[in-house]
Amino acid sequence: MTQEALIEQLAAIVGADKVRTDDDSLQTFGTDWTKIYDPKPSAIVFPKTTEQVRDIVLLANKHALALVPSGGRTGLSAGAVAANGEIVVAFDYMNQISDFNAVDRTVKCGAGVITEQLQTFAEEQELFYPVDFASSGSSQLGGNISTNAGGIKVIRWGMTRDWVAGLTVVTGTGEVLNLNKDLLKNNTGYDLRQLFIGGEGTLGFITEATMRLTRAPKNLNVLVLGVPELDDIMKVLHQFQAAMDLTAFEFFSDKALQKVLARGDVPAPFESSTDYYALIEFEALTETELDTAMTLFEQCLENGWVADGVISQSETQAANLWRLREDISETISEWTPYKNDISVVVSKVPPFLRDIDDIVTREYPDFEIIWFGHIGDGNLHLNILKPDELAKEEFFQRCNKVSQWVFETVEKYQGSVSAEHGVGMTKKPYLQYSRSAAELAYMKAVKAVFDPNNVMNPGKLIDL
Predict the structure, then answer these.
(1) Band of the pLDDT at 23, cuts 50, 70, 90?
(2) Tell me: the pLDDT tens digits for 154-200?
(3) Which of 160, 167, 225, 324 lies in the 20 to 30 Å Cα band around 9?
(4) Where is each FAD-binding PCMH-type domain found (predicted)?
């Protein structure tokens, strides 16, 4: 099919004003936050309904076209990159929120609904959508669900998967499925909904989701603690978790903190500095919870696990303390970081992190290493910063050489090569370090059932 004929047929489905081929659009919608691959889509199409998505998929099957889903494009594994002339299906216009049910605490959302949009809607209903992360102001629910996004509240409220009551999807054959009917209890065989959650659009495209909401937390308080020794962070976690329910437990290194403080946007938490920091958030419904937290803090000081600390005295201070952790990704982006998003069970974090740190320090003596992550759920973010004088291509080539050693360590600790960022193209070569050969074969078989012609986000996650 010629490019002219393609544009004409896409326009017949969504309207001429919903098809773009200008260079700016191709560059913008053809990539995500990954800097490794250059975007080269053939066209960007903006459907407004499930039926239009279905017709686009049917057209792709008829003419052997490749489709790539595009949400907020905040992914870090090249899952939404169109590098080989694919048609990008952007869900920006499928952003309606409807059918709120106060009794069931559910709401229907189009795939293009921004995460923050749902959070704000929940607040207006005096409820809460707990999945939260730094990109909540631009990420879209379809992408969140397709990558099973996690974020900063997993220790209390779990992953995106835990909040999806029902899904409408268009499979790779163009069939529309309505999955789970929004039921809380539905013990009728295979839950196909779960295949599309975390499937990265390789089986089909999510067009609508029914999301669950919950009670809004009250009087959230934030503690930031300076922790000299890595092992002691886990002692602090155990001490606090044994006595109270935490809504977050985050970790970052002093190198990460110094990058954030250098911008001058937020003040240092306290005068002293330590190699590591823990950020703890908890709900204080009464003075008892605050007293408990302070007692635990004092015990950590007495045990020598903590050198200093501060607790928020206002919502503004709590927000500023959170920025010490949440501003890290944006702050270090100017160094074009090579990112690894890895995880192990919580109890294995200290030896695992030490092993990884030894490898990268040995192999990259001239690179700056930044650590942070959701250590309360075993998720660590390893960031290697590109020196200014080094070309991007050479930098990534050098980083790729050591990835095998990093992922061999992940395998040793029975961890995951991708905790929450997805697989896309960047992690696909390393799946065997987290998945057995039998699992990979079954994943390939599932792909063949739902997308036999390989039109749905080909080259991502798993190959036919």
Answers:
(1) very high
(2) 999 999 999 999 999 999 999 999 999 999 999 999 999 999 999 99
(3) 167
(4) 37-216
Percent of the chain with pLDDT over 70: 100
Q: What is the DSSP string of 14-73?
A: H-GGGEE-SHHHHHHHT--S--SS----SEEE---SHHHHHHHHHHHHHHT--EEEESS-
Tokens 């250590």: give the residue: 375
Q: For the chain, what is the radius of gyration of the CA atoms?
A: 23
Q: Cα separation of 150 and 419, whole Å?
A: 8
Domains of the chain: 1-216+434-464 (3.30.465.10), 220-329 (3.30.70.2190), 336-429 (3.30.70.2740)
Using the CB atoms, write b or e for 150-179: b if 16+ within 10 Å.
bbbbbbbbebbeebbbbbbbbbbbbeeeeb
**Helix runs in 303-454, H state only:** 315-326, 328-332, 349-363, 392-412, 437-450
CA distance 73 to 69: 9
User: What's the start-to-end Cα distance of the chain, in Å?
Assistant: 24
Give residues with Cβ within 8 angstroms of 376, minimum separation 6: 154, 155, 237, 246, 248, 249, 250, 346
The label of the residue with tokens 């029914």 reads 210
Q: Which two tokens stand for residue 35?
A: 């800097």
- Name the nearest CA neighbour of 39 among 94, 98, 87, 81: 81
